[in-house]
């Protein structure tokens, strides 16, 4: 057939010799040479690639390639390098006192970054992403501290938690004045008015007058004579207008009725010492550190 090349009259292109319906001819329009060469090159490249790199799945393994490259190994190496770089700082934090971490700019930066990450993963569900708190879960940005706001106090609170089974947990329970019938309903109303009056929020001055006496007898031992609170006993300040359980009359009555009793888990059982220090420094840095 090669010697009888046929040329299509209309297009002037050589035909393959295939004919349908007597005069429908197939033109021979091969791919351009540059295209073919690129295709051959990719085939050669792929063979080289398959020899050099992991490529072919086998029943239980895969061909590993003569270069022995493994993406997994590269990631492992990067993680190991990252850990090595971190371990310098982690060791230093493990050795340092909390206030030394705060004074050393490099350590501080590392502690704040680690603390923020650990906070997001462990504390945010209760205290909020920005540590702004929710009803029953204190805001950690302000300088109102139930259990103390210096570095050591914050560290202890985080390590051992509050009202849990840990032997060093912070403990202290306000009596359930209503539930345990320590006070009459009317007395609770009066002392609630008095508590509200400490931040200028009382609405019934006569009740405030009656409540003052009850407060002095029943409440001041923990909350202080002027209601400023006591961090030794975890008794909140009642005079600054910041309310853990809400500052509406009904909230305050409820607090006195049930005593609340918020619980925070201990963290030394779940987080390592370095992370706990980082968290203490981080929380302390949020604005209200004492
Ligand atoms: C399960 C909920 C919960 C989680 C999770 C939690 N907390 Fe708390 N946290 C509380 C409650 C409730 C209180 C207040 C308890 C009370 O009434 O004294 C509190 C109090 C605190 C206090 C004391 C505030 C003060 O005014 O003295 C600090 C500090 C604190 N949390 C830090 C953390 C850190 C850091 C984490 C994460 C490692 C964390 N918390 C995780 C519930 C939680
Ligand atoms: C034994 C100590 C103790 C005594 C006595 C006590 N409290 Fe408390 N009070 C606490 C503690 C601790 C809390 C915090 C409870 C919590 O966080 O779950 C608290 C919380 C409160 C709150 C909630 C504060 C807020 O920010 O939401 C109010 C209101 C309150 N007390 C009022 C009173 C009044 C009124 C009396 C007296 C009738 C009284 N307390 C007696 C320890 C005490």
Provide an overview of this structure:
The protein has 290 residues and is mostly helical. The chain has a domain at 174-258: Cytochrome c-like domain (Cytochrome Bc1 Complex, Chain D, domain 2, Orthogonal Bundle), CATH 1.10.760.10. 48% of the residues lie in helices and 3% in strands. It is built from ten helices and two strands. It has helices at 33-52, 71-95, 98-103, 105-122, 124-127, 151-160, 185-197, 205-223, 249-258, 273-285; strands spanning 15-20, 24-27. Strands 1-2 form a two-stranded antiparallel ribbon. The model has no long low-confidence stretch (mean pLDDT 94).
Detail the topology: elements first, then pairings.
Elements: E1 15-20, E2 24-27, H1 33-52, H2 71-95, H3 98-103, H4 105-122, H5 124-127, H6 151-160, H7 185-197, H8 205-223, H9 249-258, H10 273-285
Antiparallel strand pairs: 1-2
Helix pairs in contact: 2-10, 4-10, 6-10, 7-8, 7-9
Overall mean pLDDT stands at: 94
- Beta-strand level of the residues, as a percent range? under 5%
Give me the number of helical elements: 10
CATH class of the domain at 174-258: Mainly Alpha
Which ranges are low-confidence, i.e. pLDDT below 50, for 5 or more consecutive residues?
none
How far the N terminus sits from the C terminus, by CA atoms, comes to: 98 Å
> What is the H/E order?
EEHHHHHHHHHH
Shape assignment: elongated
Widest sheet: strand ordering:
1-2
Helix content: 40-55%
Radius of gyration, taken over Cα atoms and rounded to an integer in Å: 38 Å
By CATH, the superfamily of the domain at 174-258 comes out as Cytochrome c-like domain
Summing up helix and strand content along with how strands pair, one would put the structural category as mainly alpha
